[in-house]
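Lecture 7 notes: from sequence to structure.
We start with the chain below.
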Amino acid sequence: MSPGELRSMIQPDHPKLSLSAQCRVLNISRLTLYYRPLPASVEELALMNTIDKLFTKYPLFGSRQIGWRGTV
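Predicted structure tokens for the same chain:
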């Protein structure tokens, strides 16, 4: 099951099991209850697009070489 599916099984107002106990039963971290991903910013999307173009042009380059090419 995905973390989202497991998270949907949690009952915040369960009469006998606390949130911590429910997380232990489902073997998930309590942090997953509160984490809400943020959408990528315009700047992050532009950077990811640049990295994608560089990697497409130079598929054998690693992160250091892509980083160096991106600064030129």
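Points to note: Helices lie at 3-8, 19-26, 31-34, 42-57, 63-70. The two ends are 44 Å apart (CA to CA).
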